[in-house]
Amino acid sequence: MSTTENLDYSFKRDLLSALPSLRAFAMSLIGDASSADDLVQDTILKAWAKQESFEPGTNMKAWLFTILRNAFYSQMRKSGREVEDRDGILTERLAVHPEQYGSLDLQDFRKALEKLPDDQREAIILVGASGFSYEEAASICECAIGTIKSRVSRARSSLLVALSIDDEGAYGPDANSMATTNRAFAKS
C-alpha cells in the first residue's frame, strides 16, 4: 500500500470510528435523533470535502467535533433568521393595506353596482358574487344562457368604466374587497 492509500484508509477508519461519539454529541446539542443524524451527516460531508486540510497525526475526533459544533451554530444562526411559512399565512400579514381603502373601494363598488340595470345587476350577482354557473343563473332568471352571458358581460364592462379600472385585478388592496370584486369580475 502506498503512503497516500494508507492515509486515505486511516482517514476513513478514524472517521468511521468517531461516528458514535459525533452522534452522541449532536444529540446532546439538538435533542432530536433525526436532526442529530442530519447534523452528523453534514459534518461527515464537510470533513470528507476538506480532508486535505486535516493534518495526519493530530486528533481526528477533536477536528470532527469542531466541524460539528460550527455546523450546529451556523444552523442555529440561520434558523434564527428564518421563519417557516409553508402556507404563506405569516407573509400575508407582513404588509397590510389600511382597511379604510378597502372600505372605500367597496362603497364605490356598491354604488356602481346599484346603478346597473336590474337584469345586469341580478346576473352579475348570481354569476360573480354567488358563484352560480351561467346555466344555473339562466335557470333562476328563466332566460337563455346567452342572455345571462350577455348581461354579465355588459355588467362587467359597466362596472369597469364606472370604477375607472384599467386592469381587472387592480381593484381593492385588502382581502375583503379583493374577494368580493374578484368574484364579480371573474370570467366564468
From TrEMBL:
PROSITE patterns: SIGMA70_ECF (PS01063)
Entry annotated with the keyword Ion transport: no
Boundaries of every RNA polymerase sigma factor 70 region 4 type domain copy: 107-159
Top-rank taxon, per record: Bacteria
Record's keyword terms, sorted: DNA-binding, Sigma factor, Transcription, Transcription regulation
Gene3D superfamilies: 1.10.1740.10, Winged helix-like DNA-binding domain superfamily/Winged helix DNA-binding domain
GO MF annotation, one: DNA binding
Domain RNA polymerase sigma-70 region: 19-81
Keyword Isomerase: no
InterPro entries the UniProt entry points to: RNA_pol_sigma-70-like, RNA_pol_sigma-70_dom, RNA_pol_sigma70_ECF_CS, RNA_pol_sigma70_r2, RNA_pol_sigma70_r4_t2, RNA_pol_sigma_r2, RNA_pol_sigma_r3/r4-like, WH-like_DNA-bd_sf
GO biological process: one example: DNA-templated transcription initiation
Family: Belongs to the sigma-70 factor family. ECF subfamily.
Name used for this protein in its record: RNA polymerase sigma factor
Organism of origin: Flavimaribacter sediminis
